[in-house]
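pipeline stage [seq->struct] | target=Response regulator | organism=Zunongwangia pacifica | residues=130
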Amino acid sequence: MKYQKPIRILAVDDNPVNLFLIRTIITKLCPKAEIINAKNGEESIEIFQRSADFDLILMDLQMPGINGYEASKKIKQIAQNKPVPIIALSANKMEDMISKGKRAGIDDYLSKPILPEPTDKILKKYILNK
């Protein structure tokens, strides 16, 4: 289903193929989406500090330098007045990852590679039905 609501998403992943896949799926589901890419955790924090006006953040967990957990924690600290949902992107969703993610402020998970149906559910849950 296509949604016409304009939304703004920060997509964070060190793999350009994953960023392309995210952009392709989100754009098909929500043609009016504005997707800003960050190639690592440090860049995601810098982008969020400049403009915290995002509806959702898709955050890879395993990145060099500042990983997704650290970046999520910092972003949640910056966004204390306007909470933004952070969705972790990970190839495997183990219990220790989930508890570590909760401590870092991660709201939910999407398995990699991302697929249209689970992505649609996340969009509905956190953005489009609000």
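stage status: PASS
auto-comment: The chain is about 45% helix and 20% strand. The chain has a mean pLDDT of 90.
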